[in-house]
Structure formats: structure tokens, C-alpha cells
Amino acid sequence: MPRRGYVQTESHKIKISKAMKRAHKNDPLLVNKTKHCGKSNGRYIDGRSSKIHYCECGRVKDRRAKVCKRCDKHASMKNKHHTKKTKKLIGLKSKQKFTPEYTQKNYVDRCQGNKKIMNGYVLIKDYKHPNRNSHNYVSEHVTVMVNYLKHPLNKGEVIHHINFIRDDNRIENLYLYKNIGEHGKCTKSLFKLVRYLLDNKIILFKNGIYSIGKYSG
Asked: Would you say 203 and 197 are in contact if contact means Cβ atoms under 8 Å apart?
């Protein structure tokens, strides 16, 4: 029996017919056993299962399917829009499902306090924090500073890690700037310091790496 969606080639059909003829010669009783196969079967319809069936796009498809697998993937809602009735039904069902109790149980209680690291910063899931982002995440260093100040951060305020280790969120390692401009002054002072150290050969730059040079204080 050929598997579903499998199309027999002409050479394969010839091999099968030769093998059946040899089997009938060796065992005459086999003819009665296999008389229900092929064209002698009453359910046979002009070899439809062995024919190649094509989709509208030109690709081969299963004989039972209306379209091929690739067209079926892209046929869902491409270049289509919901009617006003379906939009209302979707809205009603979503309101019935996403009740305050449902969101509290499946989102807030389950995900509250989850942590992840992004670009070296530790992010904490918090649905009620005033400084959370659009995905309900707040940086750990922000929570530490807010707890220290006992009020949320104002718009534009920037927190700087003194030792440049982004996941070291001790309050001793954090400094609060009023805006990005003040934080820019910090980076400028750092560049001036690096330039001074390079000019006096206190630090060296070789093979793409900064290293401490020979300096006798």
C-alpha cells in the first residue's frame, strides 16, 4: 500500500507488476487471494490514487486536500479583515475570559518577581511599580534606588553604576543623575582620564586591548 501523499513512479509500477507475476507463477493459489486488488476491485476508480494532483499555485498536493501545505499556511487571514459582527463577538469573548480575577491569577500572581538579564542589567517583573516599562519589567537598580529614596524616580533621571558592573546593584555602587546631560559629563571626565593615562603611558593599548604600562610613581 503506498503511503498517503506518495506518488508511484512508472518504474516502480513496472517493478511491482513483475514481482506480482513471479509470485503468481510460484503460487497459483495467490490469484484467488489477490483478486480484490487493482482493477478487479469494485471500488477501483481509474487509478485516481496514483495520479499526481496539483494545487492552484502549481505545487503537488495530497489528493484529499483542497490546497497544498504552503498555501494552507498563508490562507488563514492574509489580506482579509474581520467583519463588525465578528469583532464584537471577539471583544465579548475576551471580556468574558480576561476578567480581573483571571489576569490576577494567571499573570500577576504567577509572574510577579520573575527575573531576567538583558544587556547585563537585571530586570524584575512587577505589575504595580511606577517606573515599570511597557512589558511590566523594572530594572533592579531602579527598585534599589526607589527604596532608598522612598519615592519613584522622576522623568529623565539616570542611575549610574560606579564600578561599571551592571548587575552590582548595591546602593553604594549607584549614583543618581538628574538628567542625561549630567550623566554625559561623567563619561566625558572618564574619557579625559583615559587620555591622560595613555599620554603618560600609565596604560597601554596593544592588539585591541588596554593594559597597565610600566609606571614608576
From this structure: yes
